Amino acid sequence: MMQLTSVILPETSSQEYPDGDDGGFDAIVVGSGYGGSVAACRMSMAGFKVCLLEKGHKWEAQDFPTDCFKMMSAVRVENRNLGVDLGPQDALFQVCIQDDALAATACGLGGGSLINAGLVLPTTVRARRDPKWPKAWEEDWDRCEALASDMLRAQSVPMKFQNSKIMEGVIGEEYDKNIDSPIKLSMNFDIEQVSDSRMSQETGSCLACGNCLAGCPYNAKNSTDKTYLVSAIQAGCTIKTECEVQYMVRNKDDSSKEEGRFKTRSQRRWLVFLNEFDYIECDIVILSAGVFGTAKILFQSQLRGVPISHRLGSGLSCNGNSVAYLAGSSAPLNAAGLDRKQFSNIPFHERPGPSISSSYTSSLGFAIQSAVIPTAYPSFLFKGITTYGWQSGYGFLYGVTDWLKHVLGLNHGQDMVLNAIGHDDSSGKLTFEKDTNRILFQPPHDHLLPRKVEAFQKLAKKLGGVLFMPRFRSTSVHLLGGCIASSDVSSGVCNSDGQVFDKTSPTGVHPGLYICDASLIPCSVGINPCLTITTASEHVSRRLVQDAIKKNIGNFVDINFDKKPGSIYKGKMKRIFDSEVVTTEIMRGQVGGMPCTAYLKLKFQTSSVVDKTNNATGEKAHPLLRGKVGGYIECRAIEMDKMYIIHGEIDLCETDIRTPYTQYMHYRLLVAASSGSRYVLEGRKIMNPYLLALYAWRESTTLNVTLRKITDNMLGEDVMNLKGKLHISFLELLKSVFALEGGSRYDKFTIRCQHWECSHSGRQLKQEKRKYPALLINGYATESYCLPTEQDDLVRTFLKDGHDVWLLHARVHWSNSSNHFSVEDIGRLDIPAAINKIIEFYEETIKVHVVAHCVGGLAIHISLMGGHVSAKHIASLSCTNSSMFYKLTTSSSVKMWLPLVPMSMAILGNNNILPMLQESTTSYRHWLLKSIARLMPRYERCTCDECEVFSGIFGNAFWHENISDTMHYWMNKENLPRLPMAAFPHLRKICNAGFIVDNNGNNSYLIHPERMAMPTLYISGGRTLLVTPETSFLANKYMKLHQPGYRHERVVIDGFGHSDLMIGEKSHENVFPHIQKHIELAEEERSVFRTPREFKYMKEALAWSADPYEDEGRFGSWIFSLIIILLLVLLFKFFFLLGFS
């Protein structure tokens, strides 16, 4: 028996994934630099469920700035002296200026490794002998250092570049020149020497361009996102970018036991908050957010009751860093970065080389390095604007003059950056400004600074030119400390294993809270510290894994167990909710006779909380009537500091069974203080509509509250239970109204989804494993699956196989015609909404088999690779004549290349929906476009006018001999009364690019292959009409390269063109069996994932594989293309003559 139901999806919304399950994660790693990447890698490889959170986004090679204009959007400057912040929050370069100090850090997936010089230098003996250096590190330091160097793929600089030769000639005798032992860089000079198992597929070889300090635009740098994080993802780690952690609190059981209302989703130890409302649960928190980031998280957590050592923020070191700029030198320094246009004219050995390729250690205790200036750096800023000239008379005007010489092509000398690294006294200090939630810093004293300036001056005299020194006493790019490791809580924040001290705990440490980055380094190291940080992180990670195994954290599995690879996702902890309203509320009054003020932030979402049944009526309350509460409470008589809300709920219309006609606004708040105490504040306002106006105002603006301290009654403590009232004034109420933000996230569009329920899937299959449902996604406007003229269409075929079937009619379908949409809208909005509806319908953990044709295939790849649909919900993917690539025949490519689409859209004007039926009433614009379409050349002509118009617009979609007469009549006379053409501009961009791009033509999707973790089948027609078999060939090769752990197939079916793959008379014999077999194997492989041993040589084989179905008959296509061009010329001539007449 077959049931047909129609499910209306009222308004579509986009969705972002992933999320851990409701049970949270075994470990959360905050940050992805030299510390966080190591911890995420080692924990994931040990079999734990790990999630890495990164504030910045993933930077691809093409995203790094290559000129001054791009650099402006990649920098954020926070000038604390002027109170000015410029630039995006997640900019690649983060520059902080305070008093007479400047500190620069990086933000992005990979942290500082993205923009540093990549020097891999062993930790100095002086640092390891420092009294502050933890003795426990020495037990395995050399072993961890070798492991870190191997993972970073350190390679020796292959030759001496011009800059190094010049420096070697002018450096003084007091420097160790290290001539016989070239320094190593975390960079690929010879890519063939690197093992494939540890290499990202995008890794390239160094071109010696000198742009390392602005991010390598050629993927030659072995930043942590290409080393440790690649291994972490392969081991199952989930990475969420654009997620900034604010603070974390202990998930104490006592609050749940006492109130019974603040229960979290699981019994994990820690709650990691991304904002005031949303958090992720875990057993282990590993802080690796950098010196500023880690300290800020700990400061904010301390305010919420997490006891931290009073040494938090102390021990800050700038690693003795000083910088100078040498301008106008007459020496051939060759220290300016190259752009792409210059490579062909300059041989490798004459290029600038890596940013830093030599380092010279002085007997005075510091090292001097010369650096190449990237092309993206605005060098004029370093000549008298942010610096001052050492010689008198050289300032801002010198920089202007030098710039004019450069523009006019005159001889203006050569520039170079000089960098000094040494040892300071690590006496710097980090403090936290509570009102602004900002970290303030005070740099340490550098007693060698005068000696470094003297060294710069000597080099400037020998090289010639003008020396510019910074206007800041301290200029640091190598921050260390702030949360230093020590033997006890009185002298440090954590122990040598990274465990954060807790003086209130019997064990002396917070269980499951670790620091694993530069913050724990207790002293300056005297050299570029990336290897030192990585080595310390290896030590901490080793102890961390051992401790987690001993304490049975999570569902630990054997380290050799093959897990499914993880993924990189954007942003949100959960999906983007359909509707959201946010406002603020300030109430003042007294609690227990003491002044109290509540600063609340309220958030209401349609999916934010579980539906709650009304106590009086038994009905479920609307989710927008229930929300979350954040903010803080001030009651100085109880706690001197603010009491922050760590979990708050509000119900706008709660009723009591004793007073069913009275509604209450009910607040339940769990608050925490810096003293470690926790309180529950519960209150309600009366919202009775039957009260007189006078009483209504008083009751609805008065919150009757009870404040109760959470205590352990076993200790015999007195329970504090205070009552009081808080009021909101008329002025504050007006402010709350004006502060309302948000609203519906819907795009106000309705789509349809038909559902057929298989008669076998009910009672008869109760004893069997239920088969996953199938979601069918049509091509552009036409129907391909539910065919009334065919007895064996794909819908009926799947029903016979025991699958429920869902058929999506997206906004491109004629029944949902829209004037404004793109292919991206289908993938971003419609498909996620359909999959959400399917998941909601079955009310269980369900996966979906997706079958997509033509534009539907493009849209599903946009959904998956754009992060709008998670691969964990997809059982298999089958695409016909489409994929993430879209390769057209020559004639179709020429049509898309020519301005036919812009001309057509101009002809249509504001009404982009074209009537297709011959008897339809049409405007002059529609008639003109249909007339032009009839003139277009094509492979086959037809006596049916609707077929002629359709094939003139698209090209022939099928071979007439492959479909029945009844099918042909239904397709043209009944199936397509209207053709929405709004998506054609975006479709043209995709066709011209040859792969899926966003609305702006940017490659936003192919850069995320990690989101395609699923078995795939790509089918092409062997008798090419619109889309060539190269489409399926490239897709299959792409999937085998990037997701080798899954089964990927490709089929080319002779005799079929485009749409006739789905609607042909013989489709059920020649095409459908391939899809059925693919889905059947996916059902059998529900828990199967290939091990690396099964695809050891796959990449080598794919590297030289060619398409056996490559189209050889292109001569006819070129003839059609010439006819199209000739026709276009005639049309232009016609309109030209018409204009003169």
Automatic annotation (TrEMBL):
<keyword id="KW-1207">Sterol metabolism</keyword>
<feature type="domain" description="4Fe-4S ferredoxin-type">
    <location>
        <begin position="197"/>
        <end position="226"/>
    </location>
</feature>
<keyword id="KW-0443">Lipid metabolism</keyword>
<keyword id="KW-0413">Isomerase</keyword>
<keyword id="KW-0560">Oxidoreductase</keyword>
<keyword id="KW-0153">Cholesterol metabolism</keyword>
<dbReference type="InterPro" id="IPR036188">
    <property type="entry name" value="FAD/NAD-bd_sf"/>
</dbReference>
<dbReference type="InterPro" id="IPR052542">
    <property type="entry name" value="Cholesterol_Oxidase"/>
</dbReference>
<dbReference type="InterPro" id="IPR029058">
    <property type="entry name" value="AB_hydrolase_fold"/>
</dbReference>
<keyword id="KW-0753">Steroid metabolism</keyword>
<dbReference type="Pfam" id="PF05199">
    <property type="entry name" value="GMC_oxred_C"/>
</dbReference>
<keyword id="KW-0472">Membrane</keyword>
<comment type="pathway">
    <text>Steroid metabolism; cholesterol degradation.</text>
</comment>
<keyword id="KW-0274">FAD</keyword>
<dbReference type="InterPro" id="IPR017896">
    <property type="entry name" value="4Fe4S_Fe-S-bd"/>
</dbReference>
<protein>
    <recommendedName>
        <fullName>Cholesterol oxidase</fullName>
        <ecNumber>1.1.3.6</ecNumber>
        <ecNumber>5.3.3.1</ecNumber>
    </recommendedName>
</protein>
<dbReference type="InterPro" id="IPR007867">
    <property type="entry name" value="GMC_OxRtase_C"/>
</dbReference>
<keyword id="KW-0812">Transmembrane</keyword>
<keyword id="KW-0285">Flavoprotein</keyword>
<dbReference type="InterPro" id="IPR017900">
    <property type="entry name" value="4Fe4S_Fe_S_CS"/>
</dbReference>
<dbReference type="InterPro" id="IPR000172">
    <property type="entry name" value="GMC_OxRdtase_N"/>
</dbReference>
<feature type="transmembrane region" description="Helical">
    <location>
        <begin position="1118"/>
        <end position="1140"/>
    </location>
</feature>
<dbReference type="Pfam" id="PF00732">
    <property type="entry name" value="GMC_oxred_N"/>
</dbReference>
<keyword id="KW-1133">Transmembrane helix</keyword>
